[in-house]
Amino acid sequence: xxxPKAALNSASQQPEKTHIxxxxxxxxxxxxxxxxxxxxxxxxxxxxxxxxxxxxxAAVRDKLLSGEIDAAxxxxxxxxxxxxxxxxxxxxMAVLMVLNxxxxxxxxxNPLADALSKSGNLKEALASLGRxxxxxxxxxxxxxxxxxxxxxxxxxxxxxxxxxxxxxxxxQMVDALAEGQLDGFCVGEPWxxxxxxxxxxxxxxxxxxxxxxxxxxxxxxxxxxxxxxxxTARALVQTMLEACRWLDDPAHRADISTWLAAPELVGxxxxxxxxxxxGEYDTARFPVRPLPVxxxxxxxxxxxxPSDGLWFLTQYRRWGLLxxxxxxxxxxxxxxQTALYREAAALADVRVPDEIRADVLVDGxxxxxxxxxxxxxxxxxxx
Amino acid sequence: MLRVxxxxxxxxxxxxxxxxxxxxxxxxxxxxxTPAALPKVVExxxxxxxxxxxxxxxxxTLEQLAVMNETAPRPVLMFSNDGDQQLxxxxxxxxVSAYLVEGxxxxxxxxxxxxxxxxxxxDEQLRKRLxxxxxxxxxxxxxxxxxxxxxxxxxxTEPEAYAMLRKRAMDEGMKLAEVARQxxxxxxxxx
Lengths: 383, 191
Known about the structure:
The complex is a heterodimer of chains A (383) and B (191). With 383 residues, chain A is α/β, with parallel strands linked by helices. In chain A, helix 8 runs parallel beside helix 9, helix 12 (230-247) crosses helix 17 (338-348) and helix 13 (250-260) runs antiparallel to helix 14 (270-277). Chain A is 42% helix and 15% strand. The radius of gyration of chain A is 20 Å and the shape is globular. Chain A starts with a helix and ends in a 6-residue tail after the last helix. Chain A folds into 2 domains: 4-101 and 215-377, Periplasmic binding protein-like II (D-Maltodextrin-Binding Protein, domain 2, 3-Layer(aba) Sandwich); 104-210, 3-Layer(aba) Sandwich (D-Maltodextrin-Binding Protein, domain 2), CATH 3.40.190. Chain B has 2 domains: 3-121, 3-Layer(aba) Sandwich (Rossmann fold); 124-190, Arc Repressor Mutant, subunit A, CATH 1.10.10. The radius of gyration of chain B is 25 Å and the shape is elongated. In chain B, 57% of the residues lie in helices and 10% in strands. With 191 residues, chain B is of the alpha/beta class. Chain B has 8 helices and 5 strands; from the N terminus they run βαβαβαβαβαααα. Classes of the chains: A alpha/beta (383), B alpha/beta (191). Chain A binds chain B through residues 19, 38-40, 43-44, 48, 50, 55-59, 62, 65-66, 86-91, 138-141, 165-169, 171-172, 175-176, 179, 181-182, 252, 255, 258-259, 321, and chain B through 10, 34-36, 39, 54-64, 66-68, 74-75, 77-79, 92, 97, 132, 136, 140, 143, 159, 162, 166, 169-170, 173, 175-177.
């Protein structure tokens, strides 16, 4: 077996492709890509990174499939949606690593947030609107749709019958909320913080309260890219692991929020990005500090655990996005590039966490990936 | 008659297609300019084809409609099974996406896309790609030059020179390439 040093020196490990185009959407959790580019972490692994901002997740998907971008900062669920061809083109996808956990939130309009704090019951608060409530999320098979649906269902609100769910791009959500076109939304930061700063609405739930340390964005690519350029893919994972490790230092988080504020990245003032990137939430509303966005956590964040992907498949089945006979476990293990990740983690000296993790979600159900069929059967509310 | 909806929420003049398509005999619906307005229009006016800039932020809104509603227009890009692949690929290259109701014949879509193509030459995009690639190369050369300067003058190893540039970039909140540019221009100035 190669030692990391020998592996680096070996010509056979040289990246086959050295210029990598990375897609991303304007969100605070693009931080690992931003730091990897700004400080050129790729150079020591023979890679030059190019960041390509995309106006929509549909654009991320199309450009991944057409090869215009090589890899992307993507919603966990986007990868699975494309793999299954739900609502759009199908392609064989790869999750190279997880880029972050947590860091998203649910915001309600001021009237709805008031009604909720008065009655303490979401169902009653929604009824007080006197019309079908409208909630926005970011992509049909995406993480925000799944966090929103799970949260609503846990509070007794049927996400497909009791509310209307539409997709609005994150930068437009706050406007739509302020104009009264929405009653709430689930989105990544800084957009919940922006809504509060503009007094358009209030954050009522942090996604780590729905699933503590939930997987969120991944480094996504096509399976044929990984097969054609294995050394490039490994070098890219190594580069991004180093960027994630760099972000674990709170001083660095403050730095990166200044960079993220730039118009070509997120384009939102630094003072709206920094607090939630550092895990600071209003203590009156959140007396127990919610688990903040995490990018590394000694490597616990980044392993592309197939059972994380499997969770999204259970939710697609729950809400009728996926039906019929598929081998869900086989789909998840084909997408998750665990072997490649282990090689890269060894080279970057990053510990690989245990294969199994068990979490209690907001509704009291336990997800450990061991028996998805019973987990799915445990939901009384479904499509 | 095909009902065509134009989504005009980017700089690209999608709206300019209106007259040309109307002349070809299509039923042109009122344009939509924000993602929040789209769901209602698609549901009430039931377009057969939606033409939208590939860079439009409203595309995800349309995707959701396709997933939630069997009769909503679905994305057709270069991945279409039955479409004229080359034509559709070219349309996307030119910055036009079409979403159409499933089962609509590609032959009926072709003239629409041809009009769109005529409007949106892809030269502009190619020029931008070339300029980006050149900038990237220039940055890389600049960083290499700054590293060599540090190695020559400060007797550093390459990793030391690189670490110094990176630290400076972190401390100053600047891009590595900008730090390199400053260093190189300083040295040029001092000779």
